[in-house]
Amino acid sequence: MYQIGFFLFLILSLILPSCTEKPEELNLDQETEALVSILQDELVPLDTDPLSWEDQDLRWLDPIAGKSVVALGESTHGTAEFFDAKHRIFRYLVENHGYKIFAIEADFGESLFIDEAVQKGNTAEIEELMKSKMHFWTWRTQEVKDLLEWMCTYNQGKSEEEKVHYMGVDCQFNTYHPNMVMDYLRSTSIPFQAYADSILSEAEIAYVQNFGSFSSESFSTYLGKLEALQDSMALYKDILVGATSEKEYQLQARIVEVTRQVSEVRYYSLTQQSSINYRDKYMAENTSWLLDYYEGEKIVLWAHNMHIANLEYGVTGMMGNYLSYSLGDQYATIGFLFSQGTFTAVSMDGENYTGMETQTLDTAPKENSLNAIMHYTGEPAFSIEIEALHNYLGWFNAFEQGMEYFQMGSVYNKRPGDYYTVFDPDYFHYMIYFDKSTASELLK
Question: How many CB atoms lie within 10 A of CB 192?
Answer without folding.
Answer: 16
